[in-house]
Amino acid sequence: MLKPHVLKELAQIVGPANLFTDAEEMIVYSYDATRLASLPWAVARPASAQEVSGILLLANRERFPVVPRGAGTGMSGGSVPSSGGLVLSFERMNRILEIDELNRTAVVEPGVITGDLQREVEARGLFYPPDPASHQFCTLGGNVAECAGGLRAVKYGVTRDYVLGLEVVLPTGEIIETGARTLKSVAGYDLTRLLIGSEGTLGVVTKIIVKLLPLPESVRTLSAFFPDVTSAAQAVARIMAGAIVPRALELIDGGAIRAVENYLKQDISHGSGAMLLVEVDGPAAATLIEIETFERICRETGAVTVTRAADKAEQDQLWKIRRSISPALYTIKPRKINEDIVVPPSRVPDIIAEVQEIARRYGLLIVTFGHAGDGNIHVNILIEEEERPNAAEAVKEVFAAVLRMQGSISGEHGIGLSKAAYLPMEVGKHALDAMKKIKRALDPNNILNPGKIFISAE
Ligand code: MLT
Ligand code: ZN
Q: Fewer CB atoms inside 10 Å of the end CB: C or N, the chain?
């Protein structure tokens, strides 16, 4: 609990209207999309880096945890205040500060919704490619903290590939600037990259400089339905071995399709076993040839139906289906376990087969979907509470298979709370020690987002 004199000082820093302590508010800020939950002791809504700095100085003096939070859409418990403490919520720091059309950069505060930036720059013929499935709700600060990926990562990469620089408040309260406004800069250690994906454990991001691209001239999308997930996964491997890189290549297995059909009250697949969504972008003449090539590959690998979206409305409808998977699965099993393993694209058929085998052996209902083009598959185990221990064993086996295939246990959701126990499966002892040394050097009192990434910071 925070002592009255601490609450008084916090109220002085952010203003009394931006400090909450009542029970209802604490519930609102207690969970993220994993449904893991823990009540904070208080919530502050700072309006500037200076206010964040003041709060962190106070937290070090009084030794209370501080947990930064965007929109709470994270998938690994990164923003859950698992040790209590103060939640820092960035609702007030939600301005797009600058869009520099000449140099194709933008400067934003951490509370800006990703989709708002996308729309704003697209209206000026520019493009911000990172595209998490939750882009209508998630914030750029959260995207930076977790190094969010999304649907277009297969061609364009992830959040870290678009962040040129940051303004960050260090855990001990100093305000620093990292990176530069330019595409190139090798002035010292790359603190920007260190901070991106550090899950709010090494600093609080208060400003983000992003790189933008020209908006592609044309976008074409197709949907393909397969009798089973094996043939769809083979299409993925063939597409990714070819010369054309799609801007999105998403796989949805039969279980995930049924869940969305139920959720949207719509027959999408006429009973198919798997669906692929493929999208290309670029000059109109080129995308026409590209989409035809992908159509042919889908048919050759066993697709029963392949349909090109006729216009923007049909494209939007397909992406609505895709973005509805996660909410649809939560309505069926609110306690589902959601993993985001990633393997080299050629191993997508192998990992899907392994997951099916593990599901059978453990008697668990597992659905798979996601960014198959870059090998990032969401393995969702749909459990009742009593199945949790069994599911934890199955997760361990899935991770072991992923690592045998030279993949990673987390492609885009981060380690947070939910994968901390598994991190040593992937990261060797000395690398883990190096990470913990960095944490201790920057946050000697373990103030900032304690308990995340590592089971123990020691
Ligand atoms: C997605 O791709 O839909 C998100 O990463 C969320 C999820 O894994 O459920
Ligand atoms: Zn995803």
A: C
